[in-house]
Design brief:
The chain is α/β, with parallel strands linked by helices and 492 residues long. It has helices at 8-27, 33-52, 75-86, 103-107, 127-148, 165-176, 188-196, 201-213, 225-235, 255-266, 320-334, 353-362, 379-384, 404-411, 440-450, 460-470, 476-483, 485-489; strands at 62-70, 90-96, 111-115, 154-159, 179-184, 219-222, 240-241, 282-284, 288-291, 297-299, 305-310, 342-347, 368-371, 389-392, 416-419, 434-437. It is built from 18 helices and 16 strands.
Amino acid sequence: MASPCSGSSCLALFGLVAALFAVFCVTMPGVSPRLVGLTVVSALWLLWLWSLRQRDAGTERRVCALVLGDIGRSPRMQYHCLSLSKHGYEVTFVGFLDSKPHQDVLREDKIRIVPIAEVKGLRVGPKPLTYVTKVIVQCLQLFSVLLRMELHSHILLQNPPGLPSIAVAWLVCVLRGSRLIIDWHNYGYTIMALSHGQRHPVVRLAKWYEHFFGPLATHNLCVTNAMKDDLQKNWGIKATTLYDRPASIFRETPLKLQHELFMRLANTYPQFQHRGSEDVEAESSIFSVRDLTDDSVTLRKERPALLVSSTSWTEDEDFSVLLKALEEYEGFIKDGASLPSLVCAITGKGPQKEHYRKLIDSLNLEHVKICTPWLEAEDYPVLLGSADLGVCLHKSSSGLDLPMKVVDMFGCCLPVCAIKFDCLHELVKDQENGLIFTDAQELAEQLKSLLSEFPSSAGGLDSFRRYLRTSRGQCWDDNWDQNVLPLIAAER
C-alpha cells in the first residue's frame, strides 16, 4: 500500500492549493504578497500534517520495529517482530542489514525489512564535529524513512542505541499520531562512559538526552526488575519488565546435527578437525564420528570439552579474564591434573575482536585451542546445543541489564559460568543453574572442578544440565503475550 503522504495525487493536491493562492494574490492587489505567501506555506504545512495522519483500515494492525543497529545481531527485536506477526500484525523492521537475520524472520510474509545505511560521519576534522555531523545525518535519514512509510499504530524502538533515534521516533509519532514504545535493554550513556568516562561532555549530554526523551514514550519495556525500579525512581518512567526468554530454536542439539555442524566448522577452523588416522568408512571431527555404513553418529570417548562464549567484542566484556583462566587451566594439565583438552569457540563480531585475536595468537597453549568463528543465525543455536559449557563475560555498564547469551545457553540446557555483577542473580542462580565468578583465577578453578570427570555423566556439568531441563520456565511467546500484547492490543 502506498503511503498516504506520497504519490502523484498528493503532489497534485499541493500544487492545486498553491495555484489557487497564487491566483488570489494576483486578483486581490490590496493583499500583501508576504501575507499571502505565509498563508500558502501554512496551508501547505497543515495539509502535509493532515496527510501524514490519515489512517486506513489497516493502520491499527501495523507496527514499526526500529533499531539503530544491526538487525541480524538484535535477537530480542527479531523476537518482537515474530511475536507481532503471529498475532496478525504487519511489521516494518527498520535497521542496519550487516548480518543476516534468522530464517524465521526472512520467511515471514508479515515482516518487511527496510534496511538503512550506517552513518560514519566526517572522516576528517575534530571528533566533536564528526560526531555532530553523524547525528545530524542520522536524524535526516530516519526522518526520511519513517515519514515516507505508511502509517503505523506503534513504533517499537530498541534503546540503546537511542541517540538520535528516540527523539526522531517521538517526533514522528507526534506528527503522525502513532504511539511510541521504548524497549530499554540498557542505558546508552553508561555504555559510552566505558570508553569516555562519566564526566565526558558527550556522556553527560547522552544522559540528559535519555532522561529528557525517555519519559515521552507512551509505553516502556525493560529487561530486569532492577532496571524497572531504577527507571521509576530516577527517571519517572513506569516500565513493564519483559525478561529475555529463549526462542524455540534454542534447544539441545541431536547428535547428527552436532556432527554436521562440526564438519562444516572443520572446513574452516582446524580446531574442529580430527588429526588421527583416517577411516575410509567413517567421517570424523575432533568431537564426533559418523559411520558411513549405517549413518550412525557417536561422540568420541577421548574428545575435548567444547566451551562456548559469545560476544559483541565491546568494552563491557573483558575477554582477558577468559584468556588468563584458560592459561591457568593449561597449567593444571601440565602439572598432572586429569582434565580434558579444551576447544574454546568465541563467536560474534565487534570493534575489539582484532585486539583479542592478536592476544589469542600470542598464547602458547598445547591443550587449549581457541577459535573466533562468525556463525549464521541458524548455526548459533546448534553450536550452543552441542557445547559442554558456556562462559559469559558480560559485565553490565549500568548493572541493570542481563546477558541474553546466557538466556540462549539456558534454552539449550547448557551450564554457564558467568562473571558477577549487581543484578545477575535475576538470571543465574549460583550453584543451581550455573556458577558465578569474580576473576580469572576463580573461573579457572570452576573449569577444573566442572570438567574433572568429563565426559562422565557423574560430574557437576550433568547435574546443572539436569536442573536446566526441569526448570525451563516460561517461553518467549507466553512471556510476550502476557506483557507486551496487552499494551498494543488495548489501544486498537
